[in-house]
Amino acid sequence: MIRLLSLFLLVTTPIFAQIQHNEFTHDDTLRGSITPERVWWDLTFYHLTVRVQPADSTLSGSTEIRYRVLKQAQTMQVDLQRPLQVLRVEQDGKPLVVRQDGNAYFITLIKPQKTGQTEAITVHYAGKPRVAKRPPWDGGLVWSRDKSGNWFIATACQGLGASAWWPCKDHMYDEPDSMAISVTVPEDLTDVSNGRLRRVTTNSDHTRTFDWYVVNPINNYGVNLNIGRYQHWSETYKGEKGPLALNFYALPEHLDSAKMQFRQVPKMLKAFEYWFGPYPFYEDGYKLVEAPYLGMEHQSSVTYGNHFRNGYLGRDLSRTGWGLLWDFIIVHESGHEWFANNITYKDVADMWIHESFTNYSECLFTEYYYGKEAGAQYVIGCRALIRNDRPIIGTYNVNHEGSSDMYYKGGNMLHTIRQLVGDDSRWRQLLRGLNKTFYHQTVTSDQIERYMSKETGLILKPVFDQYLRDVRIPMLEYRLVAGGLQYRWTNCFSDFDMPVRVCVGESGPYYQLQPTAQWKILPVKNETALTIDANYYALSKLVR
Ligand SMILES: [Zn+2]
User: Fold this and answer.
1) Is the pLDDT of residue 529 over 80?
2) Do residues 411 and 386 touch, judged by C-beta distance below 8 A?
3) H helix or E strand, kind and range, residue 14
4) Rounded to whole angstroms, how far apart are CA atoms 21 and 45?
5) Strands, DSSP E only, in 54-206?
6) What pTM value is reported for the model?
7) DSSP-derived secondary structure for 287-317
8) Average of pLDDT values for 508-515?
9) What's the confidence (pLDDT) of residue 18?
10) pLDDT band at 72; cut points 50, 70, 90
11) What are the b/e assignments for 13-37, b being 16+ CB within 10 Å?
């Protein structure tokens, strides 16, 4: 996702700050934790069948949920958000007793659930789903129209959860190994969902059914519907793993501008395959699909609404000029194919794994085409957007995101760690290694932190703690004493000991320091100023 940068968010900051240690509700716990009714079964497959009726803005259909029994149990939790309603649940054709608790449904299974067995239930549902108020940030269903008055409909549900529009196990830790999505729409419209289109069936009731199939694990919020009078074109990209099918969908009124703007896709793939390794879903292809909102990283069907202009709605978030040379939504949302869809957070509290790396992917894209200095300027330029309002990591087990600093501060933390690594080829191997080691997995922050420490041979825990779990930006204090410059870290945890490169005097020389909370001395003569290499996200101050 991309964060909306508006006065609205700035104005509401104090309110967020006040309520951040909320009062999480019973509903938050049911939604955000791996409850006893979730933990015993492992998702293997979903078949979502849904009929979309724009005339009365309703959905109806079912999800077949296949699962493997990990531990014997008889009660299962499935989620579906109000005002949608579960109509009935069946196993082997027999109806089951269901108890509703808010947006969760607890299903009592009759058949003994034996460890190791694969079973399935089917959950039937219907109703008017929540309408998105400000997609993609405040999501749900978007019922829009194109210029000619035809329906233009989409889903967006990150954070909110996929159960806003279909019944599922709405927790990120568990993904199905594959998924079928069958969508029935009025006959003049086309549905674009995830994976490959297997079949289009014309029905006798003036509707058509689009059968999509995803052969890879997919996260809940990555599943999507895009419905409109789409024009479609395709090409083949020769990538690291061979031919990759690219499919593009745009409204008729935007066909020419889309064909022009979407030429950036092969450019994006070239840069990201270089930095991160092969596109993670060759089997499912890559799609870029016009949507009636800004954009979202839907797996293998990235959605696009950036008005076919470079920048973020025509603006450069870094204010360096580099961000105007490419389309922010094509680059950022596609970057998520590696960090969000390939490597996925288990708990939304660790959303930095998606957004910090993807913010940094913008820097790496810039670097790939315009040079290392350009990339560095871009990520450093984004610092103006950092708020340091609350920690980047949110509260676990209650579906709670941390600060929006997960974007620009997180990107700058990674850029700082890259300086500590001090070797660009190792840095690239680290990024590729992450995508290989955690290929198609859901992960915790701890796993990523440990991997990066192990692979770099650096003790990065104090760095991660400082930037992810605290709001203070480390301050390198220095003072002039007989014999040189004294320096130490302040405004940080007491064990923070990150090395830093500094310039002493107006233009050098440069020194690599190992500051801690204790004063240390750099024996330099007649020097009165010290500045931190701008590539490090830290501050410095002269004290008496
Ligand atoms: Zn994002």
Assistant:
1) yes
2) no
3) helix 7-19
4) 36
5) 58-69, 75-79, 85-91, 94-95, 97-101, 104-108, 118-127, 140-145, 151-156, 178-186, 190-192, 196-202
6) 0.95
7) EEEE-SSSEE--TTSEEE-STT-SBBTTB-T
8) 94
9) 41
10) very high
11) eeeeeeeeeeeeeeebebbbbebeb
Ligand 1 center from residue 513 Cα (angstroms): 34
Task: Indicate the angle between helix axes 445-456 and 405-421, nearest 10 degrees.
Answer: 20
Q: How far apart are CA 515 and CA 85, in angstroms?
A: 59
Separation of CA 463 and ligand 1 centre (Å): 23
Other beta carbons within 10 Å of 307: 14
Max CA pair span of the chain = 91
Neighbours of ion ligand 1 (CB under 5 A): 1, 355, 358
325-346 tens-digit pLDDT: 999 999 999 999 999 999 999 9
- Quick: pLDDT tens for 46-57: 999 999 999 999
Distance 67 CA to ligand 1 centre (A): 30
* Torsion sign across C-alpha atoms 4, 5, 11, 14: positive
> What tokens does 19 get?
């309520």
Starting at the earlier edge strand, list the strands of the sheet with 151-156: 140-145, 151-156, 226-228, 190-192
pLDDT tens-digit readout, 188-218: 999 999 999 999 999 999 999 999 999 999 9
Name the band, by pLDDT with cuts 50, 70 and 90, for residue 22. low
| CA 324 / ligand 1 centre spacing (Å) | 18
Q: What's the mean pLDDT in 214-243?
A: 98
What is the Cα–Cα distance from 357 to 407, expressed in whole angstroms?
Answer: 8
Q: How far is the CA of 299 from the centre of ligand 1 (A)?
A: 13
